[in-house]
């Protein structure tokens, strides 16, 4: 004889975490316009008329995508920090 597994009770409340507000900066003394960041986080970065990356919207992509773009930047030109706490998520050095 089989019995149905008991269902776990639904939690009374689910904690929600809002995305951090980010400050994303591109150092134009370093950026060589490789376009990598614009491919990885296309809603956050775009190339300007000078062929360098600019920040369109620091909330344009997920934090993970923006950090990935910063990590992949061959010139270490992208810095990312929490606008409210000041916590540095990515320091290009
Ligand atoms: S990945 Fe780095 S070097 Fe390439 S466009 Fe973006 S900021 Fe510039």
Polypeptide structure, described:
The protein is built from two helices and five strands, in the order βαββαββ. It has one domain: 2-Layer Sandwich (Alpha-Beta Plaits). It has helices at 36-40, 63-72, and strands at 22-26, 45-47, 53-55, 78-82, 88-90. The protein is α+β, with helices and mostly antiparallel strands. The site of iron/sulfur cluster has 14 residues, from α1.
How is the topology of this model organized?
Layout: E1 22-26, H1 36-40, E2 45-47, E3 53-55, H2 63-72, E4 78-82, E5 88-90
Antiparallel strand pairs: 1-4, 2-3, 4-5
The chain binds iron/sulfur cluster.
Distance between the termini: 65 Å
Structural class: alpha+beta
Which runs of at least 5 residues are low in confidence (pLDDT < 50)? none
In the sheet with the most strands, the strands line up as 1-4-5
Assigned CATH architecture: 2-Layer Sandwich
Number of H- or I-type helical stretches:
2
Characterize the largest beta sheet: strand count, sense, and whether it forms a barrel: 3 strands, antiparallel
Instruction: Give the topology string: H per helix, E per strand.
Output: EHEEHEE
Q: What ligands can be seen in this structure?
A: iron/sulfur cluster
CATH class: Alpha Beta
């Amino acid at each position: 004889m089989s019995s149905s597994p008991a269902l776990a009770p639904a939690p009374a409340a689910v904690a929600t975490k809002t995305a951090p507000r980010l400050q994303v900066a591109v150092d134009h003394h370093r950026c060589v316009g490789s376009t990598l960041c614009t491919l990885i986080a296309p809603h956050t970065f775009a190339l300007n008329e000078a062929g360098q990356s600019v920040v369109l919207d620091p909330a344009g992509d997920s934090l993970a995508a923006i950090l990935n773009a910063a990590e992949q930047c061959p010139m270490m030109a992208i810095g990312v920090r929490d606008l409210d706490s000041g916590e540095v998520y990515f320091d290009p050095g």
